[in-house]
Amino acid sequence: MKGDGPRVAFLFPGQGSQAVGMGRALYEASAAVRALYAEASDLLGLDLAALSFEGPDEALELTANTQPAVLTASVAAATVLAERGVEPALVAGHSLGEYSALVVAGALAFGDAVRLVRRRGEFMQEAVPAGQGAMAAVLGLELPAVEACCREAAQGEVVEVANINSPVQVVIAGHRPAVERAVRLAGQRGGRRSLMLPVSAPFHCQLMAAAAERLALELAPVPVVAPRVPVVRNVDAGLTTSAEEVKPFLIRQVTAPVRWTDSIQRMATLGAITFLEVGPGRVLTGLLKRIDGDLAGHAVEDPEGLARALAALSLVGSSNASE
Question: Which residues are catalytic?
Answer without folding.
Answer: 95, 204
